[in-house]
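Because showing beats explaining, we let one protein speak, sequence and backbone structure tokens together, and leave readers to judge.
___
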Amino acid sequence: MALYHRKGSTYELLIHHSMVILCFGIAVSTRTYVAYAALSLVVEINSVFLHARQLLTIGGISKSSSIYRLAYLIPYLISQPIKVLFYNLGLML
């Protein structure tokens, strides 16, 4: 991506993902705040579906179509049980 598509947003995205990997790696290697770091990665799952919705919009898919609505539903179905699990285990503030 950095080699073929050079824009300001490309570098921002690379820095963002580098920082996420670095921070998660530090949390895992020091064994501190691993639960919080894992929970913060749930946000990254949502990003995948955000980009999928953008691609659907670019592709001319209607926002009322079932595939577009599914792109909203899936991240919710993934993140909510994870949040509830962390909350019930007492791992959240």
In short: The chain has a mean pLDDT of 80. DSSP finds three helices and no strands in the chain.
